[in-house]
Amino acid sequence: MSLQLHYGASLAALNTLRVPAWAGLLAQPDAIEQLPDLFAAARAQKLPWLVIGEGSNLLLAADFEGLVVQPRLLGIRLAMNDPAGHAPPAGDRVRVRAGAGENWHRFVQWTLDRGLFGLENLALIPGSVGAAPVQNIGAYGVELSDHLAAVEAFDCQHGGSHRFSAADCGFGYRDSRFKREPDRWLITAVEFDLSRSPAPVLAYAGLREELAAGGIGDPQPADVFDAVCAIRRRKLPDPAQVANAGSFFKNPIVPELQAAFIADHHPDLPMWPAGEGRNKLSAAWLIERSGLKGHRVGDAGISERHALVMVNHGSASGEELLALARHVQDTVEARFGVALEPEPRIITGAG
Ligand code: EPU
Fold first, then answer.
1. Catalytic site residues?
2. In terms of Cα–Cα distance, which of 275, 281, 278, 288 is closest to 263?
3. pLDDT digits (tens, 9 = 90+) for 30-58
4. Under 8 Å CB-to-CB from 333, ≥6 apart: which residues?
5. Does residue 306 have its Cβ closer than 6 Å to ligand 1?
6. 20 to 30 A from 115, CA-CA: which of 74, 91, 280, 332?
7. CA distance 79 to 88
8. Fold of 243-347
9. Considering just the CA atoms, what is the radius of gyration of the chain in Å?
10. What is the position in ligand 1's atom list of the atom closest to the CA of 308?
C-alpha cells in the first residue's frame, strides 16, 4: 500500500484547460491510510500542497513547486450505517456513498441506473465526486447541496478525518467552507440522500423547452438526464474537443438598485432575485455585450458557443489565459460597473 511519489510531474493531462504546467511532486493516493504520512512529511518539509480533482475547475497560471495531491479514492455503495450514529434516511430515501476519486457523471449514471433520483439535473458536469462539494456544483435548477447528506474530509493541516453534515459545509452559490479553506481539507468521500420516487425539477425554462420540443409530456428522471445532456452538448464546448474549465466567472450578485440602473439602459439583461435586496445577473450576457464572445488572443479565447467559458484553442499558457480573464474583468467593469469573480481556482505560484 506504499504511495508512489512522482518528481517533476507534468500536469498537462491533469487540468482540462490543458495548460502545460509542472508539479514539484505528484501523489495519487488510493487509500485514506496513505494521507497522514503524506501530509505529515509535507508539513515537516514546509512543502506547500495543492489538492486537485480532475482539474476541471483549475487554472494553472504557474508551475506548482510543491506537492500536488490527486486523490484516487474509489467506490460507490449504499450507505446503510452512518458512522456518527444518525438515523438512516426515512421512507423512500436512500443514502449513497461515493469515494472522492469517482468521476461525477459516472456516479450520476450509477444512481439513475439503480432508480435513485435527485441528481439527474447535474448530469455531464465535468470533474470528480470529491471536487463537487468544494464549489457546490449546480446546473439547470439543482445544486449539489439540495441532496448532499455528509462530507468526509482529511484535515491536511492538523491530521485526522472529519465528518461534516450538510449544514456544517457552509454552502452558498458556487461556495463552501472547503473552498474558503482551500489548503485545509482533502475530501475523501461524499454521501447523498436520494429518493426512489421521481420528483423531476423543471424550474429551468430551457429544460422545460427541451423536453417539450422532444414531445415529452410527463418527464421522468431519465428524460431529464437526457435533456440536460443534450442542452450541455449543444450549448457548452466539449472539454474533449476544446480545452476549457466550464464557466470561468460566477454570475455576479449586485444590489437591486444597481441591477435596475443597468436594466434601464439594457431591458434584455437577464437577472434573477438573489435575496437580501440583491439580484443575480448573467455574466455570459455582460461578457457578450462587452463584445468579447469568441474573442481570441493567440490560443487563449472566449468560447464562441458560450461567453462564460474560456477556452484554450491549442497551446495557450496559463499566464495567457489569466491575462485574458483580467481583460474580460476590466472590460465588463468599465462598461457595466460590475466586478466579475472567477469561478475556478487560480494558481499563480507556490510558497
Ligand atoms: N447568455 C448570453 N450569452 C451567452 C450565453 C448565455 O447572453 O453566450 C445568456 C442567456 O441568454 C441566458 C443567460 O445568459 O439568459 C444564462 O445562460 P445559461 O442558462 O447558459 O446559464 P449561465 O448562468 O451562463 C449557469 C452556470 C452553469 C450551468 C448553467 C445552467 C454559473 C457560473 N454557471 O450558467 O454552470 O450549467 O447556469 O444552469 O453559475 C459551470 O459552473 O461550470 C457551469 C457550466
1. 174, 247, 343
2. 281
3. 999 999 999 999 999 999 999 999 999 99
4. 339, 340
5. yes
6. 74
7. 9
8. 3.90.78
9. 21
10. 24
Q: Nine-digit cell at 350?
A: 507556490
Do the Cβ atoms of 130 and 190 come closer than 8 Å? yes
Q: Report how far ligand 1's centroid is from the alpha carbon of 29 (Å).
A: 35
27: its cell numbers:
501523489
In whole angstroms, give the CA distance from residue 229 to residue 203. Answer: 16
Task: Give pLDDT tens digits for 152-211.
Answer: 999 999 999 999 999 999 999 999 999 999 899 999 999 999 999 999 999 999 999 999
- Provide the CATH topology of domain 5-69: 3.30.43
The rounded distance, in Å, linking the Cα atoms of 246 and 309 is: 6
Whole-number Å distance, alpha carbon 283 to ligand 1 midpoint, is 8
> What architecture is the 76-195 domain classified under in CATH?
2-Layer Sandwich (3.30)
- The C-alpha cell of 190 is what? 461524499
Residue type, 140: Y
Each residue's pLDDT tens digit, 268-293: 999 999 999 999 999 999 999 999 99
Is the CB of residue 282 below 6 angstroms from any atom belonging to ligand 1?
yes
Q: Distance from the CA of 343 to the center of ligand 1, in angstroms?
A: 13
Domain ranges of the chain: 5-69, 76-195, 243-347
* Host H or E run for residue 113: helix 104-113
**Helix/strand/coil percent split, the chain, to 5:** 30, 25, 45
